[in-house]
Design brief:
By secondary structure, the chain is α+β, with helices and mostly antiparallel strands. It is built from 19 helices and 22 strands. The relative contact order is 0.15.
Length: about 675
């Protein structure tokens, strides 16, 4: 560690072989694997060559999120139902826009990653024979899912962190990422450093700038959850997409965010048993009065309505292909329609669904077979939803109790929320980005395509982190960075960053960071959320471009140094919103239609329901069906400060899964000679 005076600020330098940015389940596993591979190869003091840098150990989706972070999707472990990696990969690529080589790698590495977690101490349940029992999740043709309860991903990151600490790897907490330092251009471009602000030492007199120099960077900082107003991401989950774009990383599938029903007081998905116990869903006015059983207007029978509530358990994500003919995602549309009227929507576990003069009273025996048989098999033939939930999944009740919400006495307010970014930054089969020696893992990696089975994100993070560590150690080696803190080129880039921070501190504008973030979130939710229209998206894109340029020129008003962190995040989110909206506009222009987890509105489309109106036209809400011809291509987005929209888009073909297989002897030779790492 060295300290240099740059632009009147004391800047602290750290030097490593590999810096992992982010401390969730994927980031911690990568640090663990880096150490183990270095140790296996006889490299001295591997713990001194690796660092984990994070804005907050207790923050992030792995530690705080519900969503499918409570489900782990792996290859099947049933003793009597066969499964294989190719079948697993077909499930991941079924929705299109997913690279086949990545999907196959995730299938092949699935059980290796899962049992690594079991050995790390994650309490996945098994029976007396050691079978890890599975269940069905969304977009899952088999019972591949498993879970350690609602805190599955939290257990994963905590168990892996314990091992990382036991290995002696340095964890630098409270480091806000501000900018990447790069060297070279084109194919020779490299990220060689990360500039951060150490939040614990930040003051009006000290910007607490630190610089991490390394040969390799692994980006594992999660998705940009703060882009959306209605979101199930943890508060403050901003990600580092803005600085990654500026450094030159190419993004893929930014259009494919996933949305679904979640509670809003405490941000948590209401998937799985929350829906399978079939709670009552009702709405009120803004003050909590005038209760209304609004779903009854849209379903012909209690059986159909209640069964669809049940099906939202494992058909949880909003899915345009499950709207017609009174399917489960009609519930998402109706809930959103209700909230657009200024009303609030709640789930009530103290009462069964309530009918009207057309709909009979609720009864489990009247449910359709899929729902009825599931509840009977679970032994959940109880009178009330709370009793069924208590019987099937008591930890689901406890997680709300921990956040001062008592499902035994109060309803749960819900909305349609953003919960996962299926897109991210493009990677190859070793999870290396378009910039060599920079790897992207976890939710930052754009590996998922249009649809994915619930919980497959956790599997992707574990497989990707293991493969990235494998490639780093066996191809790039373990040497620490040779870049000097006295290098004039490096110091110039750092000075530019420091001057920018000082400029924000001195800004006289009236716009605050919180106001800026609120404006970004509103724009993204309305125009880049689960309901999209080309005209609106084009208008939002231009507004986002102008807004980012305004922030760059005028800055944001900060009262003190602590506000500086919010200002940095706001600027990065502003740039990210341009990238996402640029991708959305390009996709809509291509005639993609409704796919994944978003609905594309059109006057000439398919009617959602005769009683649901388009808020812009007042006409019956209609949507375009998916253009399946586009499933074999992906929109790739790259930052270009000279471009009118700040980003350029390119359509690239989906990479197929490799089909070549070798006999044992030549495969063994390739392994010994390290040819497995060849492109």
């Amino acid at each position: 560690m060295k300290t240099r005076k740059i632009a009147e600020q004391n800047v602290t330098f750290h030097t490593f072989n590999t810096v992992v940015v982010g401390a969730g389940a994927a980031g911690m596993n990568c640090a663990k694997k880096l150490y183990e591979y270095m140790d296996q190869n006889g490299i001295a003091d591997p713990q001194k060559r690796i660092a984990v840098v994070t804005a907050g150990l207790s923050l992030g989706a792995s530690r705080m999120s519900g969503s499918d972070k409570q489900t782990y999707y792996k290859m099947g472990t049933s003793p009597d139902i066969p499964d294989c990696a190719e079948s697993f990969a077909r499930s991941l690529t079924a929705g299109g826009c997913c690279h086949g080589d990545l999907a196959l790698a995730e299938g092949i590495g699935s059980l290796r990653g899962f049992y690594n977690l079991v050995e790390a101490g994650v309490p996945f349940p098994n029976d007396r024979m050691g079978i890890y029992i599975g269940y069905k999740t969304d977009h899952d043709p088999y019972e591949r899912a498993t879970s350690a309860g609602p805190k599955t991903s939290k257990f994963m990151s905590q168990c892996l962190e314990k091992i990382v600490r036991r290995y002696g790897i340095s964890i630098y907490d409270n480091q806000e990422a501000v900018e990447f330092i790069t060297r070279g251009e084109g194919q020779n471009k490299r990220i060689i450093g990360l500039v951060t602000v150490y939040k614990k030492e930040l003051s009006d007199d000290n910007l607490a700038v630190q610089v991490f120099l390394a040969e390799n960077f692994v980006l594992a900082a999660g998705g940009p959850g703060a882009l959306y107003k209605t979101s199930v991401y943890p508060l403050g989950q901003t990600g580092i997409h803005g600085i990654a774009f500026k450094a030159g990383l190419a993004a893929e599938n930014l259009t494919e965010s996933q949305f679904g029903l979640a509670s809003t007081k405490f941000r948590w998905n209401v998937s799985g048993t929350y829906m399978q116990v079939v709670p009552r869903i009702f709405s009120t006015d803004a003050d909590g009065n005038d209760e209304k059983e609004f779903l009854t207007d849209f379903f012909p029978t209690m059986s159909k309505m209640a069964t669809n509530i049940f099906l939202k358990g494992y058909q949880w994500p909003f899915d345009p292909q499950r709207i017609e003919n009174l399917q489960s995602s009609l519930i998402d549309v109706v809930v959103f329609n209700e909230t657009q009227k200024g009303r609030r929507v709640f789930m009530d576990y103290l009462h069964n669904p309530i009918g009207n003069e057309r709909l009979d009273e609720f009864g489990i025996d009247a449910l359709e077979p899929e729902a009825r048989n599931y509840l009977k098999a679970a032994g959940a033939i109880k009178k009330l939803p709370i009793e069924r939930l208590e019987h099937m999944n008591h930890p689901a009740i406890d997680i709300y109790k921990e956040h001062d919400i008592d499902l035994y006495s109060e309803p749960l307010e819900i909305a349609v929320c953003a919960q996962h970014n299926n897109g991210g930054f493009g990677v190859n089969k070793w999870w290396e980005s378009n910039i060599r020696q920079t790897f992207v893992i976890g939710e930052m990696a754009g590996t998922h395509g249009v649809k994915r089975p619930g919980g497959s994100a956790l599997n992707a993070g574990q497989v990707g982190s293991q493969r990235a560590a494998d490639f780093i150690v066996h191809v790039y080696g373990a040497a620490v960075s040779s870049v000097s803190s006295e290098n004039p080129e490096i110091q110039l880039q750092i000075k530019t960053v420091v001057d920018r921070l000082m400029g924000i501190m001195a800004s006289k504008t009236e716009l605050t960071p919180s106001q800026a973030i609120s404006m970004i979130q509103h724009r993204m939710t309305v125009c880049g959320g689960h309901i999209r229209k080309l005209k609106n998206a084009e208008k939002a894109l231009q507004e986002a471009i102008d807004f980012y340029k305004h922030i760059k020129t005028e800055g944001l008003r900060v009262k003190n140094a602590r506000d500086l962190i919010d200002a940095v995040q706001a600027e990065h989110l502003a740039l990210s919103s341009v990238a996402y909206l640029k991708a959305v506009v390009e996709l809509l222009k291509s005639g993609s239609g409704s796919r994944g987890s978003h609905l594309v509105l059109s006057d000439g489309g398919i009617e959602v329901h005769p009683d649901i109106k388009d808020p812009d036209t007042g006409k019956c809400l209609k949507f375009l069906p998916e253009n399946q011809a586009l499933r074999n291509s992906i929109i790739r987005v790259v930052f270009d400060k000279t471009a009118p929209d700040l980003f350029t888009c390119q359509t690239i073909p989906v990479r197929p899964a490799p089909t070549d297989r070798k006999a044992f002897e030549p495969a063994w030779t390739d392994y010994r000679e390290r040819k497995i790492f060849d492109e």
